[in-house]
Amino acid sequence: xxxxxxxxxxxxxxxxxxxxxxxxxxxxxxxxxxxxxxxxxxxxxxxxxxxxxxxxxxxxxxxxxxxxxxxxxxxxxxxxxxxxxxxxxxxxxxxxxxxxxxxxxxxxxxxxxxxxxxxxxxxxxxxxxxxxxxxxxxxxxxxxxxxxxxxxxxxxxxxxxxxxxxxxxxxxxxxxxxxxxxxxxxxxxxxxxxxxxxxxxxxxxxxxxxxxxxxxxxxxxxxxxxxxxxxxxxxxxxxxxxxxxxxxxxxxxxxxxxxx
Length: 260
Prior knowledge:
Order of helices and strands: EHEEHEHEHHEHHHH
Oligomer: single chain
Distance between the termini: 28 Å
Radius of gyration: 19 Å
Shape: globular
Low-confidence stretches: 254-260
Strand order of the largest sheet: 2-3-1-4-5-6
Helix content: 40-55%
Strand content: 15-25%
Number of strands: 6
């Protein structure tokens, strides 16, 4: 059975390069000019060591926050993302990608958004720290810097210190090959392999996620209910009655199981 990995982090952290590193070939490409929206994703099926994985390369939270229009687009993305994950059987591993030397306010927001709200702390989460090709030993970075994560209340099951920069020569290419082994081992050691134990999904998670988006990110938290309903019906193809129920739940902070 294919196991599902949600790969997330800020723009520029090297998520697509990590997909290619794991795959052992170029399967993911990034376009600098592409419009980037929170919870937009691209999925890739990759195979290594006799297992098949589907990696959801997902745009996480940026430091700048969201204007109302961006929030409404992110709401639609959240709905489609959760529906897709539900259809694929859930999430087996969260892979949080961070660029060394670049810690922003979005570090904790991304962790909470994906680990607490999307996966309700039920799915293992691991860290991949990129941009370490200049280190003498890449793991030295973790020895020096790991204490920053508990300070942000970030706790993970494992980590890999890597470079995802391919095409460099000599020693750098050796580090790249070492990084491929490290990231694959990180995945194999921590992935659950049993959807039923972790992922819940459904509208409860959607409501929780959308409320988190608003509370963590939105510069103007007054979102008109009619705008929300319009977005859910137009972009998500949701019946108006269901959209109204969910909009009420998002507004009131209540999660009811009966809105389907």
